[in-house]
Design goal:
Elements (H helix, E strand, L loop, with lengths): L15 E5 L3 H18 L4 H4 L8 E8 L2 E10 L3 E9 L8 H15 L4 E7 L3 H5 L4 E2 L6 E3 L2 E9 L13 H4 L11 H6 L9 H5 L6 H7 L1 H4 L7
Parallel strand pairs: 4-5
Antiparallel strand pairs: 1-2, 2-3, 3-4, 5-8, 6-8, 7-8
Bound molecules: coenzyme A (COA).
């Protein structure tokens, strides 16, 4: 994002809290919001709205005001870009910059994970809305249609964050809950208990060069059924 907050940011009906969805209860709130906004307001059919991608490789963000769910969005992860989608705010809560706060969180999360490119499919009349987050129309690409609406691809390319997660980050940091990498998580606490044993005793005692003793008993690799991809 370009860092410029809309001047009327302060007129929000209350502090907006955005979090990564990690519980079924929060997920249920997302479903309720999207049913209300996309299915009821925008007449989107159920199986187009709930398209099979919600539980497969997606991160969801939920916005609440005073404990009431008011908005949500979804981020999906690809090789070198993340895609923001399904962004919506309850009608009564619009124009209070909740959309802005959610997008700010999403772009922050995406960049912290080391991504620089953020892709969106913007409804044609909302291209200007996306532009203020730094996601600009890909003019070389055609408009396309789904769920009875015309869309443009919009793309933001952001500078690499210095604190982006990478391969050599402390392993326990990578194991923390999504988006909460700066505070100890459940595995940090379990690490404090220490290791009970490094290796089971039976594995230590098998010193034969090919592990043939074990293979003889079970018939070895050749004797086993082949695994097939289905
Ligand atoms: C788009 C949406 C998420 C914005 O949420 P929000 O919390 O109201 O967003 P903000 O308060 O941060 O920004 C509002 C601004 O977005 C722009 N905007 C929002 N909806 C717009 C629309 N339908 N047409 C044109 N501009 C729009 C306007 O500039 C508006 O400013 P204004 O309120 O001062 O006129 C919300 O309108 C929504 O849920 N729409 C229905 C779902 C949807 O279409 N999602 C986008 C899919 S691409």
């Amino acid at each position: 994002m370009d860092g410029s907050r809309p001047d009327d940011f302060a007129r929000s009906p209350g502090p907006v809290k955005v979090r990564v969805v990690r519980t079924l209860d929060d997920f249920q709130k997302i479903v309720a919001l999207r049913a209300l906004i996309y299915m009821a307001e925008q007449d989107c059919p159920y199986d187009e709205e709930f398209d099979g991608n919600d539980l497969a490789g997606a991160t969801h963000l939920l916005a609440e005001i005073g404990g009431e769910p008011v908005g949500c969005m979804r981020v999906r992860w690809f090789c070198d870009f993340a895609k923001v989608e399904r962004s919506c705010v309850r009608p009564d809560f619009r124009s209070f910059r909740i959309g802005w706060v959610m997008m700010d969180h999403a772009i922050d999360l995406i960049r912290r994970k080391g991504y620089r490119k953020v892709l969106g499919h913007a409804q044609e009349h909302l291209v200007g809305y996306w532009e203020r987050y730094g996601l600009l129309p890909r003019n070389e690409r055609d408009t396309f249609v789904f769920s009875d609406r015309a869309y443009r691809e919009v793309l933001g390319i952001f500078p690499q964050r210095e604190d982006a997660l990478h391969l050599d980050v402390d392993p326990l940091v990578l194991d923390r809950p999504e988006g909460a990498w700066d505070r100890p998580g459940p595995l940090d606490r379990s690490a404090a208990r220490g290791a009970k044993s490094a290796m089971p005793a039976t594995a230590k005692s098998d010193k034969s060069p090919s592990g043939a003793a074990g293979a003889g008993k079970t018939g070895g690799r050749a004797g086993r059924g082949r695994r097939e991809t289905v």
